[in-house]
Amino acid sequence: MLDINLYLKEKKEVIDSVLEKYIPRKFNERTLRNILGKEKYSFDIDSANRAISEPIWDFLDRGGKRWRPALFMLLTEALGGDTEKVLDFVALIEFIHNGTIIIDDIEDNSSLRRGKKCLHKIYGEDIAINAGNAIYFIPLKIIMDSDLDTSVKEKAFEIYSQEMINLHFGQAMDIFWHKGGNRGITEKQYLQMVSFKTGTLARLSARLAALLSGKDEKTEKILGKMAETIGIGFQIQDDILDITAKERKKFGKAFGNDITEGKRSLMVIRVLERGEEKDKKRLIEILDSHTKDKNLINEAIKIIEKYDAVNYAKNLARKMLKDAWKEAEKVLKESEAKKTLQSFMEYLIERDV
What residues have CB less than 8 Å from 3, skipping those under 6 apart? Predict the structure, then answer.
């Protein structure tokens, strides 16, 4: 069986070389002109480096799996597309993802990300917000400067815009929920939220791969659904690892971080739907307190475990992926890329970090 960790490591080197092409580690006059056009007055290159390049590369150098752009490359190959020709699009996907994390950490008042202090704890909220927002837009130069047909460019912009709208609505729901704003969240509402928040960038990867490989909208829709489901499964597994991962440094987040945030994960929703009143009440009390007390976090985890919510969440993710793959495999010809894609899907929801 293919070692997906090794596969991702190999792809990461390729992806990072493209990231540097669009946001270099050190801006100079030429690289700023590539992004901004010729200056009318005078660039402050040092400020651009200190407030854009430095914090962004501080964050990117911490790691991250790069699985979303790797998914784009894999799907492009499986569809018979020209991976080399559209390689720069990996930067669009990866930059957006990292921008969402930088902003998310501020919104959640998180302290740790990928084993280091969150970016806003180092550079301040102002620089972190601006840097996070900047990498939503800088990679749009990839579409703008490409030699794609105008109709393909327009469709790429449309896909990007719609998925970014979806992403922000998913984030809005998640924030409102963990602030205690909705006491009656259903499983279906949770899945819709995650399909927007975490499924969005995976779906973006698949839709762009289909578009740039010259496939029709039906194929784009089927693969988008599959990729969205990968994103949902990834999020469910991430929530599971938040309370079960043994290697915290590799996982990169503090133990029970989601409990502290008051996050309404699928496991929490399962307890709230099936649990006894006293357990539901106690779990809500702990979540709403946004505690960092390990004893209280462990108490919340014990309530979750009492109702076998971890296994329920994992089994649901597996079923969703199995169903999505049944549809997707019909539009993909037999190839090594297709086999790798199936292993890739399984890895993302079975990983232990």
Answer: none
Please identify which residue in the block is written with the tokens 């919340």: 300
> Does the predicted model carry a pTM greater than 0.85?
yes
Cβ proximity of 18 and 88 under 8 Å: yes
327: burial class by Cβ within 10 Å (0-12, 13-18, 19+)? middle
Burial of 35 (0-12, 13-18, 19+ CB in 10 A): middle
Q: What DSSP designation does 346 have?
A: H
Residues 171-206 as b or e (16 or more Cβ within 10 Å = b):
bebbeebbeeeeeebeeeebbbbbbbbbbbbbbbbb
pLDDT in tens, 213-269: 999 999 999 999 999 999 999 999 989 998 887 664 554 556 788 999 899 999 999
Residue with structure tokens 């009143």? 277
**Beta strand 112-113 pairing with 116-117:** antiparallel
Please give the single-letter amino acid code of residue 140: L
Q: For the domain 4-350, what is the CATH code?
A: 1.10.600.10
Q: Which long-range contacts (CB under 8 A, 24 or more apart) does 241-246 make?
A: 241/351, 241/352, 241/353, 243/267, 243/301, 243/304, 243/310, 244/310, 245/352, 245/353, 246/352
The answer to whether residues 168 and 128 touch, using CB atoms and an 8 Å cutoff, is: no
Q: What is the pLDDT of residues 300-320, one digit of tens each?
A: 999 999 999 999 999 999 999
